[in-house]
């Protein structure tokens, strides 16, 4: 047999298979692998949705007209809005959207309109999705309720090909892992017991387990021992609030975006130096909670970025990822797409246009 012909034939087959793989991935909305996983948190709070929102949540935000989304004061979960958001995310190289997810005792799932709208998109343009369980709403109140929650995830989300996985394990970020442990102890369990039970449920359903990721501060005996020992497979954060630790060891909330991002770098360095499990690097577009009534320290609400300072923060994050590829799993998560009440958003607005998502694209996609 002609060796040169055989090699050409084999190469042609491999190219064809790769093309088919990419087409199939795009059809499923998951896309081929990227160098970085660039995630963004999504707050699904922009529509009237009793019992959590009896009035229009945009009302308070309208006092800050510079925060108006480019698409207008939208109804969260509207298919047209979701498609527009997905287009903008994909264009910026964002390949993971993590939806804040709520379960209320005796009521079940709430505020799932945005994630359900995303799930229905026929083309997700290479963006996958996952859940951040906002477990500071009173659940689980019992072991059975926790089982109900996990079974809901398994049946409703984890069979979706667009759901984000690590080594086959569907990802769930736990917003308040210490609160989960406290809740578990109220009914005679620990968070370690609950995570073990959740993994058993997933394995029974044919999955290799669940990739639980704990949101955490850079706190000794927590990020370095308690959370890894409890069964979490990675760490991250929703956001951080502090300026860097002062020379006398004291901490306070940031009074500028420069202080806030310096505090982030301090947290990155400590966790990367002390955690035995991967750390998905959190980044922030800023903090200004005046629309929700303001921070306890009013000066903290001056922690506002510009597109240029946000881009610099992303560059520092990228450098950290590149220097710690295995420790970070080359993953960054941005807070946030649309936390307008907290002044943390990169969604295109009428004031800034696409400047913030352009910064994401410039740093991570090129």
TrEMBL record:
Keywords of the record: Signal
Domain of life: Bacteria
Keyword Signal: yes
One Pfam family linked to the record: Glyco_tran_WbsX
Segment forming the signal sequence: 1-27
InterPro entries per UniProt: WbsX (IPR032719)
Gene3D superfamilies listed in its UniProt record: Glycosidases
PANTHER family tied to this protein: GLYCOSYLTRANSFERASE (PTHR41244:SF1), RHAMNAN SYNTHESIS F (PTHR41244)
Protein name: Glycosyltransferase WbsX
Lineage, top ranks: Bacteria, Pseudomonadati, Pseudomonadota, Betaproteobacteria, Burkholderiales
């Amino acid at each position: 047999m002609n060796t040169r012909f055989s090699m050409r034939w084999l190469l042609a087959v491999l190219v064809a298979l790769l093309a088919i793989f990419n087409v199939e991935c795009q059809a499923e909305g998951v896309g081929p692998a990227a160098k970085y996983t660039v995630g963004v948190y999504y707050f699904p709070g922009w529509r009237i949705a009793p019992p959590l929102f009896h009035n229009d949540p945009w009302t308070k935000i309208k006092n800050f007209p510079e925060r108006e989304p480019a698409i207008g004061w939208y109804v969260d979960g509207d298919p047209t809005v979701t498609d527009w958001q997905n287009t903008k995310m994909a264009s910026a190289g964002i390949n993971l959207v993590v939806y804040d997810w709520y379960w209320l005792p005796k009521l079940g799932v709430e505020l799932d309109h945005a994630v359900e709208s995303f799930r229905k998109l026929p083309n997700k343009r290479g963006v996958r999705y996952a859940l951040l369980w906002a477990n500071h709403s009173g659940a689980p109140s019992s072991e059975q309720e926790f089982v109900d929650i996990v079974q809901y995830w398994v049946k409703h989300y984890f069979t979706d090909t667009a759901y984000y996985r690590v080594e086959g394990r569907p990802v769930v970020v736990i917003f308040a892992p210490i609160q989960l442990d406290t809740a578990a102890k109220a009914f005679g369990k620990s968070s370690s017991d609950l995570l073990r039970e959740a993994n058993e449920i997933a394995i029974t359903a044919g999955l290799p387990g669940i990739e639980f990721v704990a949101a955490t501060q850079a706190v000794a005996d927590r990020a370095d021992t308690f959370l890894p020992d409890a069964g979490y497979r990675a760490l991250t954060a929703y956001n951080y609030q502090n300026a860097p630790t002062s020379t006398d060891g004291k901490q306070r909330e940031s009074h500028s975006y420069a202080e806030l991002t310096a505090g982030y770098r301090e947290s990155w360095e400590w966790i990367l130096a002390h955690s035995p499990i991967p750390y998905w690097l959190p980044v922030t577009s800023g903090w200004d909670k005046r629309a929700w009534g303001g921070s306890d320290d009013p000066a903290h609400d001056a922690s506002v970025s510009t597109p240029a300072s946000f881009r610099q923060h992303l560059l520092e994050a990228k450098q950290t990822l590149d220097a710690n590829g295995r420790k970070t799993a080359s993953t960054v998560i941005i807070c946030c797409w649309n936390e307008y009440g907290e002044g943390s958003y990169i969604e295109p607005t009428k004031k800034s246009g696409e400047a913030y998502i352009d910064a994401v694209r410039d740093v991570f996609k090129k």
